[in-house]
Write a structure and sequence with these properties.
189 residues, 6 helices, 29% strand, Rossmann fold, 12 strands, alpha/beta, three-stranded mixed sheet
Length: 189
Amino acid sequence: MSHPVLIIVGDATETVDTLYPYYRLIEDGFTPVVAGPEKRRFQMVLHEVKPGWTITKEWEGYSIEADIAFKDIRPEDYCGIFFSGGRAPEYIRYDEGLIRTTQHFFDQNLPIASVCHGVEIPCTADRVRGRRMATVPKCRFDLEICGGIFVNEPCVIDGNLVSGRTYHDHGQYMGHWMKLLREERARRG
């Protein structure tokens, strides 16, 4: 495999949000590269809004090893980037290496995917102005206050940016992001 693609994580990254694209990338011949604040193992979580609940229930999921720390990323080495959900984006979004990397992918018009709370990272990087995105409805404020346009649909495509609301939408938006990645792989040769 070649053509590495970044998957952005931190402690409390949502398990399904992370593992679905991880294995989907492998299936399509890409190399998923897990990036976190440090090169170490991160604890993922499971999120669900249970029937009758008004808030998200959270419990421990699997853990995942980061292959690289944000500060060590050379963004030009990667075909695309995936912003996973869960609570992690709220805490990792201020990391300078992550912001620099995020801005690179937006500025170079490379394939980007985001799900759930993942939106908080491009918001902090000041790259959502005028962009249409799906996210979990509780992050609507974050998106709109940063100039983005909230769309409550399972798949939103805005140029190089593909997004979904939660892991329930993976089957709707993931194929569109994979198509962009295949096009980028062909362009790079």
